Every structure is written in C-alpha cells, then in structure tokens.
Fold:
Amino acid sequence: MNGTLYHVVYKGEILSGFDMEAVCKDLARISSISAEKAKRILEGGRVILKRNLDEAAARRFGTRLQRMGLKVVLQLTGAKVSALCPGL
Structure:
C-alpha cells in the first residue's frame, strides 16, 4: 500500500441508457440518504461522493456507482479537477 488516497467524484450526469428515477433510488439506498437528497445530488454538478479512500476501495465504490448509472471518476486527494483519473 502506497498511502495514496482518492475521492470518488460524480461528474453531474448519468450514463446513457439508465433511468434517472432508478439511479436516484439506487443512490439513496446505498448511501442511506433520502430520495430527495439523492435527486439533488444527481441534478447538481460535480460532487465528491466518497473521500479519502485507498485505490482499491475507490475503484470498488466507483465501479458500483457506474453499474448503477452514475458517471464518476477517481480524483487524487489534493489534486485539481484536471488531474482526475480518467477510468476506473
């Protein structure tokens, strides 16, 4: 383990072919938040959904979110938005 930490960042859009209502419901369920709060997150812009995860945990969580339909990227902690990791 190299000690590098990542944030899992929602890019403000859902992936093609996914239903916004279903994505909202799934996000609320896995995040233990209300459907209203999940909807605000999905309709907003860029949001950090999880902070300070090691690479393996960040990839697992990011992959789970992508399977639900969220467009996410991994960002090194302390990095600017332009330094986002392009893929999981």
